[in-house]
Amino acid sequence: MKGWTYAALVAGLSALAPCVPAQAQMETTAPALVPGAPAVTVQRVKVHSSAIAGNLEGDAADREVVVILPPRYASDPGKRYPVVYALHGYSIGAGQWLKEIHVPQVVEGALAKGAKEMIVVFPDSKTVHNGSMYSSSVTTGDFERFISEDLVRYIDSHYRTLADRRSRGLVGHSMGGYGAARIGMKHADVFGALYLMSPCCLSAREGGGMDAATLAQVAGLRSPAEAQGLPFGLRAQLAVAAAWSPNPKKPPLYLDLPDGDAAQRNAVLAKWAANAPLAFVDQHIADLKRYAAIAMDVGDQDGLKADTEALHKVLDSYGIANSFTVYPGTHTSHVAFRFQDHVLPFFSAHLVNK
What we know:
The chain has 354 residues and is an alpha/beta fold. It contains twelve helices and ten strands. It is globular, with a radius of gyration of 20 Å.
């Protein structure tokens, strides 16, 4: 694949996923058990999303969602709780991410170490091409609206939440970090605090074409489901195209790739660039100023460090308070520790809990 090998794709799109097989993403170290940590309750539900219904890829509109209820939820029926919505990365679903960050152990650990009780929600946004990019597309469905509207409405109507933006937090890792940035900028009326963990795809990148062999692989597909047999990196490219350059007149994949002449390639890449948060952040400064707090972190061995720092500097330049932490580690090596010891305490400190 000329110009769009897996390694080039990862670098060019700010690393949709680490350069390792998806299965390896779950092989992370767990923090030490906190003695005496009260148990949380884990519920698995299906949430119907009108925003996703009718998507051209045929992905399910009934989405799997894991809900973590705090230890005293059942015993204190008069109590209402803030909610944290946690978005997974590319190539894994919610269930796989829970294993990667060692939920429920890390939630129990954070609460036992002093974080205030909260509900934590893990929606599944994996698609036929391994990831929705948390974007709005007729091809994938509107996952941006699924998170910001359908899911929030469901959780508020089925659980004892504090149904106020000041009591809702949004966090994500990798592709989920991108989703948290994108949705956070566009829906500050829904969420009150924001945490980006190693966010991918923040900046616009240049790309090249695709060689004849790769085009033949894509052209030979008779349905989106058949793409499951393609190489991992090519599937990542299809995920990006489905989310950011959809084409309802181009079955069976209903997307445009940067695979034509110079004008066509530039048109597609311009659409991809328009979805880069560093390209549209300046249009959302007033929205970002509404947040009670914004935090970002990234490992010092993560290729996403430069873009994450660039977003931090943009916010600083506008006088938007935010924290930026570079910790020793790779893309996934410390994600469970960060979630327990930094992410949940951050929301405990900044979400309204009354």
